[in-house]
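Continuing the batch. This is chain 6 of the set; chains 1 through 5 are on the previous pages. Same settings as before, nothing changed between runs. Recording input and output for traceability.
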Amino acid sequence: MTQPPHPSRSICLLLLWLGLMGMLAAAQAQAPAAYQVQVVDQIWRDESRNRDIPVRLRLPQSRNPAERFPLIVYSHGFGGDRESGQIWAEYWASYGYAVVQIQHPGSDSTFVDALIGDTAVMKALRSSSAGNLVTPRAFDIRFVLDELRIRPEGRLIDQGRIGLAGHSLGAYTVQVLAGQRASMRLPVLADPRIRAAIALSPTVRNRVDAESQFSDVKLPFMLITGSKDVDRFGLADAPEERTRPFYAMPPGGKYLLWLHNADHAVLSGNAGYAAMPREPGAASADAHDVHAVQLFSLAFWDAHLRGMTQAEQWLKTRQNRRDLADDDRFERR
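Output for chain 6:
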C-alpha cells in the first residue's frame, strides 16, 4: 500500500516551489534592458482647442517589423515639460515600452518660469486652480491617444495596452483619467483606453470624502510616495496624506510603494532633480529610491500591460522585500 507523503516533506516541496517562483519572478524583473530607443521630439496641433502640444516619443527599436509595443503616456508636474520624468521614461522604453512624454501648456515650464519669483501668486494659482489645470491636461492626453491612432509612429504601438503615469500635478491628472471624481463641478474624465496607471507623488483633493472620489478607479493602479514627499513650494499634501488615494480606491490590483526618505524631487524622475531644493540628507537615498521606483514600476507594467505572470507573482510575494530598505514598505489590495 502506497504511503501518503509525509506532511513535512510536502511543506518543504511547497516552500521550494514558492522559492523557485520568487527567484524566477525576481530574475524576470531584473533582466537586462534589451532595446535601443529612438527619441523623437514633435509638436502636435490640437485644432479643436487651438492648442499646441509638445511631445517627446521614445520608441524601442526591434528587428521584428511586426512587433508592437505597449504604450506609456507620461504627464509632468507643475512647471515641467516634455523632458520631465526622463529617468523613468528612459528605463521603461529600454525594456520595450513606447513612451510619450507630454508637455502641458498653461502649467508647464514656459508658463511657470514667468511667475517663479512670485511665490504668493504661484501658491494662489496652485491651491485654487488645481482642478482647472487638470481638465485641459486630461484633454491633452486624450488628444495624444487619438493622434497615435493616425500618425506613423502609432504603427509601433499596441493600442490595446496603454498605461498612464505622472508626477505631482501629473499624478493628479492620472488619477482623474483613471476615474477619480475630483469635484462635482468637473466632468468625469475617465478614459477606457487606459489599462493601468502609476501616480508618483499622488494627491487627494476635498479629503473629507476620499472614498466617493475614488470609488470608480477600478483599473490596476500603483501609487509611489515617500516620507519626505513634500512639494518644493510647500503647497502639496503632507507625505502621509499622499497614501489616502490607495486606501480609498476599491481593492483589486492596487499597490502602494512607500520609500523612507524619498522626496518630491527624486520622485519626479527629472534628470536635473539634484539641482532642485532638497531635504537635508536626501542625496544619500537617491540611488536606492531610483532603483526601487524603476524595479517596482517595471514589474507593475509587465504584470498589467504585458500579462506576465512572473512579474505579477513577484509583486505578490515577499521576494520583493530584498530590494527595499528596512523602513520602506510595499502594500497591495
